[in-house]
Amino acid sequence: MIDVKTPNVVVLGAGYGGLVATTRLHKQLGVNEANITLVNKNDYHYETTWLHEASAGTLHHDKVRYGVKDVVDNRVNFIQGTVSEIKRDEKEVVLQSGETLSYDYLVVALGAIPETFGIEGLHEHAFMISNVNGARLLREHIDYQFAKYSNSDEKDESLLSFVVGGAGFTGIEFLGELTNRIPELCREFDVDYHKVRITCVEAAPMVLPGFDKELVDYAVAQLERKGVEFKIGTAIKQCTEEGIICQKGENDPEEIKAGTVVWAAGVRGNPVIEKSGFQEMRGRIKVEADLRAPGEDVIFVIGDSALVINPEIDRPYPPTAQIAMQQGEVCANNVAKLVKGETNLESFTPDLKGTVCSLGEDDAIGLVFGRKLFGTKASIMKKVVDNRALYMIGGPSLVLKKGKFKIF
Fold it and tell me: Which one is catalytic: 173, 177, 202, 361?
């Protein structure tokens, strides 16, 4: 009798893609068909697309996260640990603790880190909207700035000056929440609303590059009405303890003094990708149609770690939760097929339902099924999208526990 070894399926990362892949795999593979292991730095998953709310203080940080073990089957072996390296020749994953995990099939869903483009001082002096603890730090810092200003005899105006670097989705959604929170903070700390300065600096020639112009114009008008000053086509050259130095084209550099600088201008793949010797671009792997890494038979790459080209414009699809979750499903299907000895793997093609960008609790813009949405209608759709993401991972119980139900 031949002893057939049960294959080890290892999933790295419990973000949107990794969690969907894991939950689908344990539904498709029986207990004797595969050993499934999920590795994640934290014992919780956090909704990356909600971090701007926690950062501004309009949503409690505990609301944006939930335990990994609350949504994965108890036969999945969950390991809380940080991945250090993937040794492809040995088919091993090395953790920072020194522990090694052997795999027969590997799903890389390690997420992203902020991309600073080599701008001096950003790592040292700017806040990043990239994880739960970073969001908590930013929220507490914002509160402290108002308290310090209110409690000082010599009023330092820079304490109430905020610079947001980046006018993409993260930057605009954070601005929406911040402008909603500012009046509340002014009332709480007896601060004149007109003393607050909010500046958004974007190197690209427009806000929300690639988005519908009519929707962008609406978003800009709404945020300007709430006090945001936009500097478009303007690059941040340096971040200092006192604020930023920026420059528009050939104009002279300008210094903006600010007690708070928030960097929200792009991400790159996890450094583990580069360290492990994959062929990559800014930490992302240009995957094959079936989501495998080039030249790899058993390594799949999804989410922010994967680079998928949109053939219509010959540019990568943006790294969104919507795409990551769809990749998680296709990846799980393909891994399950390989485990069962099948070779007819699925190709991944994004099925984009639309995009919604929040401008605060009760305002948003969106393009959904080809239809433009503004204001309250878009805001309602945003909450539907957020709740749907919860449902896809944890079903009705997770939606009831963490969902957004305040519509108006």
Answer: 173
Strand pairing report for 267-269 and 112-114: antiparallel
CA distance 394 to 389: 9
pLDDT in tens, 190-213: 999 999 999 999 999 999 988 899
The first and second tokens of residue 246, run together, are 């920026």
Cβ atoms 325, 319 nearer than 8 A: no
Q: Provide CB contacts within 8 A for 28, sequence distance 6+.
A: 332, 333, 336
- 300 within 8 A of 108, measured Cβ to Cβ: yes
Q: Which two tokens stand for residue 260?
A: 């708070």
**C-alpha torsion sign, points 390, 396, 400, 401:** negative
DSSP bridge pairs for 86 = 93
For residue 41, with 0-12 CB atoms within 10 Å meaning exposed, 13-18 middle and 19 or more buried, which class applies? middle
Q: At what angle do helices 213-225 and 169-189 cross, to 10 degrees?
A: 20
By C-alpha distance, which of 129, 100, 87, 38 is closest to 328?
38
Can you give the pTM of this predicted structure? Answer: 0.94
Do 96 and 16 touch, CB atoms closer than 8 A?
no
DSSP E strands: which ranges in 222-363? 228-232, 234-240, 243-248, 254-257, 260-263, 267-269, 285-286, 299-301, 306-307, 309-310, 315-316, 354-358
Q: Which helix (H) or strand (E) holds 282?
A: none
Q: Is position 173 annotated as part of the catalytic site? A: yes
Mean pLDDT of 39-43: 97
